[in-house]
Design goal:
This protein folds into two domains: 2-160 and 314-346, Glutamyl-tRNA reductase, N-terminal domain (Beta Polymerase, domain 2); 165-308, NAD(P)-binding Rossmann-like Domain (Rossmann fold, 3-Layer(aba) Sandwich), CATH 3.40.50. By secondary structure, the protein is an alpha/beta fold. The strands form two sheets. A six-stranded parallel sheet has the order 7-6-5-8-9-10, sandwiched between helices. A four-stranded antiparallel sheet has the order 2-3-1-4, with helices on both faces. The protein is built from 15 helices and ten strands. The longest helix has 29 residues, at 318-346. Helix 7 (136-155) runs antiparallel to helix 15 (318-346). Strand 5, helix 9 and strand 6 form a beta-alpha-beta unit. The model has no long low-confidence stretch (mean pLDDT 91). The chain has helices spanning 15-21, 28-37, 65-77, 81-84, 95-104, 116-130, 136-155, 165-177, 192-203, 216-223, 236-242, 259-268, 304-308, 312-315, 318-346; strands spanning 2-9, 43-48, 52-59, 89-91, 184-188, 208-212, 228-230, 245-248, 274-278, 295-299.
Length: 352
């Protein structure tokens, strides 16, 4: 069986395109089923994060697979092929394997060495396995990639310092406001990125943090350990009147905050400045809000310059991390060669 990766990321495509191709959690079962029935994949996994959308495919033969995956993504995102395909990368072995191990280890992330991607790869694999979309080959592949990522984080300095998008967003807020000790921050989203941002905000001594989430129970649970105040999403209009900084990180399929809501809040605030950092993909805040006076709106792609200035120390650990991954990749191929040899010796059954 051949292992192929087709996708795009923050290097190859802007957020406007990445959000079109994103797969919400509730769409994954149907998408994985179509990949197997319509595209002809024997094994499949979809990795959809704020910075990438990738399909990992296991197929008996490569003939036409990449073209079919291009069409699948084009139809899913409702993007014309000629506008999408030039932005996609298509990798076959051994590059596809090397790419997965690097992605899981944070070597291909916007924030070099970020830890959240390891959890995202693990969740994506578990979802695919739960839908019956993985078999012996992908189970071994992803378990080894996850173990390799853990080894990189344990044995190198790649994960030191500011290594999440959420913490970078807090750093951006500090650059704009200086000390955050007198700021009121409204944080929408209690997922992993939101949790990391909340902890960083609390550590920075923010005067008041209000936390919103789709489920209030989760907001209350997370807020209890970080001196934050949980508030329901229905209170958003009133909260926009008081916040100095709005930080969003949800997977909502459409805007949570539109231009009209921000405009109304700004009138009531008498144009007191509002900083908005939108980490959602798809975006949580209408980009048109940036046209309003005294509104400073940043999306995840706007953080790239700040990220570049904070990760020089971690770049020095890259060679060490790559050496670890090279050994882990080779061990995966050794296992695979032994499996194929065992299948050939035991009879006519097809090898993975």
């Amino acid at each position: 069986m051949h292992i192929v990766v087709v996708g795009l990321n923050h290097h190859s495509a802007p957020i406007e395109l990445r959000e079109r191709l994103a797969f919400p959690r509730d769409q994954l079962p149907g998408a994985l089923a179509r990949l197997r029935s319509d595209v002809g994949l024997q094994e499949a996994m979809i990795l959809s994060t704020c910075n990438r959308v990738e399909i990992y495919a296991g197929v008996p033969e490569l003939d036409g697979t990449i073209d079919r995956l291009h069409r699948f993504l084009s139809e899913h995102g409702r993007v014309a092929p000629d506008g999408l395909v030039p932005r996609l990368y298509s990798l076959s072995e051994p590059e596809s394997i090397q790419h997965l191990f690097a992605v899981a280890s944070g070597l291909d992330s916007m924030v070099l060495g970020e830890g959240e991607i390891l959890h995202q790869v693990k969740r994506a694999y578990e979802w695919a396995r739960g839908e019956g979309a993985t078999g012996k080959l992908f189970n071994a592949l992803f378990q080894r990639a996850l173990n390799a990522a853990k080894a990189v984080r344990a044995q190198t300095a790649i994960g030191r310092g500011c290594t999440s998008i959420g913490t970078v967003a807090v750093t951006l807020s500090e650059k704009i406001f200086g000390s955050l000790e007198r700021a009121t921050v409204l944080l929408i989203g209690a997922g992993k990125i939101g949790e990391l941002a909340l902890k960083r905000l609390a550590a920075r001594g923010v005067r008041e943090i209000r936390l919103m989430n789709r489920t209030l129970d989760r907001a209350e649970e997370l807020a209890s350990g970080c001196r934050a105040v949980p508030v329901p999403l229905t209170a958003l209009p009133s909260q926009l009147l008081e916040a100095d900084i709005l930080l969003t990180s949800t997977s909502a399929p459409s805007y949570l905050v539109d231009r009209g809501a921000v405009a109304a809040a700004m009138r009531a605030r008498r144009q007191r400045p509002l900083c908005i950092v939108d980490l959602g993909v798809p975006r949580n805040v209408d980009p048109a809000a940036a046209t309003l006076e005294n509104v400073y709106l940043f999306d995840i792609d706007d953080l790239q310059g700040l990220v570049d200035s904070t990760q020089e120390e971690r770049r020095q650990a890259l060679d060490e991390a790559r050496a670890i991954l090279a050994g882990k990749v080779e061990r995966f191929f050794s296992w695979r060669r032994e499996e194929i040899s065992s299948c050939l010796c035991s009879g006519p059954a097809a090898a993975p």
